[in-house]
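Let us walk through a complete example step by step. Step one is to write down the protein sequence. Step two is to encode the small molecule, PPS, as a SMILES string so that its atoms and bonds are unambiguous. Step three, shown after the inputs, is the structure prediction itself.
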Amino acid sequence: MCRPPIGGHGKRPFTTVVPSLLGLAAAAMLTMLIATTNSSSSMMGLCKSAGCMGGLNSKERQLPPLPSPNPAMLPSGRLELLHGCTDFRCLRAAHALPRGPGQAFNFPHFFVIGFPKCATTSLAAYLQRHPQAVESNPKEPRMFNAVGNCSHPDSPTLRWGCDKAQEERYLLRTLKRDVVVESGLSRAAFEASTDYSWTPHVVASGIRRELPWLKLVVSIREPISTAISGVVHRLQELGRPKEEQSDWWVPEPVDECLERMRGGTNGTSMADCLRIRLGGDKSAWFDYTRAMAGWLHAFPAEQFHVLQYENLTAPGSREAVLADMQRFLGLDPSLAPRELPAENSRKGSEHPEGWPMRREQYEEFVGIATAASHRLAEQLEQHGLKDGEQWLEAWEAAWSCNLASCDANGDCLIQLT
Ligand SMILES: Nc1ncnc2c1ncn2[C@@H]1O[C@H](COP(=O)(O)OS(=O)(=O)O)[C@@H](OP(=O)(O)O)[C@H]1O
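Step three: the predicted structure of the complex.
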């Protein structure tokens, strides 16, 4: 294999009986806190457009400032408010209240935002087995870029806001609010809609506006391997009967090439199909930097944990990488499952010996990937997330390793990281 060298919280039962007086005080506080959180998000520059006024009419905007709350009337904390929350506004109000003892996590606590084909399913499965974590159902709810009707992807200046019924469904069913509340916030809810990573920047700012405390986990793989992994997935999907194809399936120009490849038509190679898949602006597919820029604009760097796929999956470094990630998330690594699963794996069964490719073809891809990878390494370093040089070493080693497989005629076998 052409792999580069790679340098308890106890559960607290939640008392559901909130005295009615406290309930009233909580409701009053909720109103005040909602007002506070709304104004603070616009102050943070997250909501610059007029549409971001959240639908307030002019009369509501003229309301006098709310009086300061009487501390004696404060609800005892965020848990009591969260207990009844069915929308994001309420969550923000609850998170503005102090945490109680043992309440280790926010709700939701973190997202695995990408990238597709970078072992995110394995990562989610691993985290799901952690006793302090609560995985969403489904793993990829796609609330913010599809299901929740939250955004206008074509125009970041248009008003952002998710459908209220979908918010309720998302919090209660998808993110399992009651499980988390009953744990006394000693468990961390998460979801892993990995195509959030490639969505327009408005999605990142929208998520930040709704859930500003979120921690974000991102796994990034050597770009040529990621792209080939995507093509192989498509190739397999094409081989399935139409009625069994995934619901995300949309025909693409590359399909014809893949059909020829599948049919064994002479001369149709992975490189041909990959080139078509990458399209006119080939570098866009390798350009993690552009996608990350939107996220890094929306969220502070401290809220990200970036994993390099090659480190995450290498037997020598995997354990330490996973432990680091758990510490970042506030999960106890000593409670972690033993193994990182190997979900969605195709490279072990599809051309495990490597994809035949001409040297000049692979060099062309490496040329594009190199420029994009340098930009990414620089970006990660600038934000204090990674050592750029070390990052590049792992990928350059993979490229060299593959080029070393080429014979005197220039025929190579390209293995995925
Ligand atoms: N533990 C472990 N070690 C090494 N490699 C692993 C592991 N877990 C997942 N993978 C590889 O990750 C690829 C699938 O990534 P994703 O789950 O993110 O794909 S998806 O976007 O959700 O479809 C897929 O890559 P390919 O096989 O090249 O397609 C998996 O093999």
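Step four is interpretation. The longest helix spans residues 20-43.
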